[in-house]
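#struct-pred

JT: dropping the chains for the assembly here, can someone run the whole complex?
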Amino acid sequence: MVLLGLSLELVFLFVSFGFMVGVFFGFFGMGGSFLVTPALLILGYPAPVAIGSSMAFVFGTAVIATLKHHDVGEVDYKLGALMFVGIALGIEAGSMLVFFLEALGHAEVVVGAVYVLLLAGIGLLFTRSAIKQGSDDDGDEPVDDDDIPEIAKRIKSYNIPPMVTLTDGSKASLWTISGVGGGVGVVSGFLGVGGGFIRMPAIYYVIGIPLAAAVGTSLFGALMSGAVGAFTYGLSGVIDFGVVTALLIGSALGARIGSASTAYVDESDVTIYFGIMLLLASLAVAFGELANWLEMPIFDTVSFVLLIGSSVFVTAVILYYGIEAVREQPRTTNPAPTGSER
Amino acid sequence: MLEISAVQALLIVIAVFIEAVVLYVGYGYLEDQFGPRFIRAIENL
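RK: done, full complex below.
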């Protein structure tokens, strides 16, 4: 039986995988889209199809997340709109690079290799930060959500015209905003990711707006980069709409459950598992590349099991901690609204 | 690769947008209907 142009097994797989990505998105505030492209690559989709479909998925997921943040007024639309030109140009450049590499026959290898490094790097950062957090739990200073880091204050002190006034009343150089947009756009277009793991810190540390607004605005940026990316790749007819639909059905539900879990689960309890999952995902992509180079299908199986297995494990950990927390600390009021992702 | 027109590509983007909004609203409705009951069921496990 065929549904959405896919076999039932694949529909089930993509809905389940989308659900897991949605849980990560809702819980950690990151799309988890950087897991989707490798998964599609491992399943044998050509790089442009994997990246194009991932971009469309990013767009859909970002629409859902932005709607949630819009409800609590945490989106700086003016800043998001100003970043748009940089994002669009960056995505165009990134996608041109992918098609250029595809023409040379190296797209899968290069995209795969960059993924291995990226996932390993982010995984190490998360794991290290979780271990550090665990060792000096008592020494942490509470973070003021309205404060901005020192480096952002220093960057803001350089008045390079034209300066623009942001929604919170602060000023930033249009060059800084465009530079952040362009840099994130290149990464988005090249890898088929929303780029939230780069964009959110860049908005916070470089442009310098408060953390909560940085998260919401970053998601709005993901919406725009996803829209531009989906359109760019859509022009080449490489978006598999069935795959995108199945992933979105799962992720929209997962994101609600993931964000609801943040009301009950301490993120630091789970961060280390997320870091380890990213490291395993990096290993999975590396095995996928080895399978192609050495023509040994067994590595494809290992790769697939590692990617799906680690995602299932971390999702189960989040749900387990969530259920345990609800059971141990019964709430007297209604459950927290699920529109507050971090 | 299949080259398609800008209008068709735009339609794909619009279709994904509509799909996302429908899922957001649909799951939101389900959450309003069953969310509190679901949490109470877990509390009573």
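JT: nice. The mean pLDDT of chain B is 85. The CA atoms of residues 39 and 45 of chain B lie 10 Å apart.
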